[in-house]
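Lest this sound abstract, we think one record worth quoting, the chain in one-letter code, the fold tokenised, each line plainly labelled:

>
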Amino acid sequence: MLNEMTTTKIKTVRWLRLNLSSVLTILGLTITIGFILIALFAPMFQSWGWLQDPTESLSNPIHQPPGADYWFGTTRQGYDVFSRTLFGTQSALKVVFLATTMSLILGVPLGLVSGYLGGKMDKVLLFLMDTIYTLPGLLLSVTLAFVVGKGVLNAAIALSIAYIPQYYRIVRNHTTSVKTELFVEAAQAMGASTTRVLSRYLFLNVIQSVPVVFTLNAADAILILGGLGFLGLGLPPEVPEWGHDLRLALDALPTGIWWSATFPGLTMTLMVTGLSLVGEGLSEILNPKMRRRSNS
């Protein structure tokens, strides 16, 4: 009887754990897709007259609290907070997508070649990537932003360098493990070229974790982009961007104008939460070891 009760409790805990994970993953997907739709349709809403021009300063009213006319209020500079918050989503997604895609395109092939060929090139790349990896992402991005300047592409370049080592390390470690498998050795014995081995026999077996890294890096990149904007190093001042808007709102907080900082900050937090939940969900789906631990 006691064993049956224990077994029932264990099954109940497993069921709750799996269902909670599924609910959180679906919630994360819903939030992320919602932000993508906002970024896509914000220009259309503006053309229909539903949104103010986020770059146009209203002569009156300024310091307007949230209400029927201005849902998120207006800033002390006369900008509509609701419009800038929605268009800030578009700016964030552009930069983050470019940054994570560029780091993936560079990091994955480097990890494949380095892990498969080994030798001096592997040692040099490993040392270089480990050096970059030890630097704080924000500090590295700030330094690079000083060099490349402002703009969507420049901000993406400044962010992408920090994420290349993560793709490199994961793919390299998986490649060094998979390249000793029998199917790879058989392909080599049959005279398959290095390019064929990498593209046909290794690539699909070592990229299981890449979507997880991509999603979590995107969440981290949003925070770093916000930090760059807050420091005045991300995008040009006229481009709606959450970090820049938080910087402008900082001086207004002591005067009671809370809304100009609250809504961009909450939106940034919500987007990071959504992407993080998607990343955790993908990790559980794509990582067999994690699934086994969840079922144990």
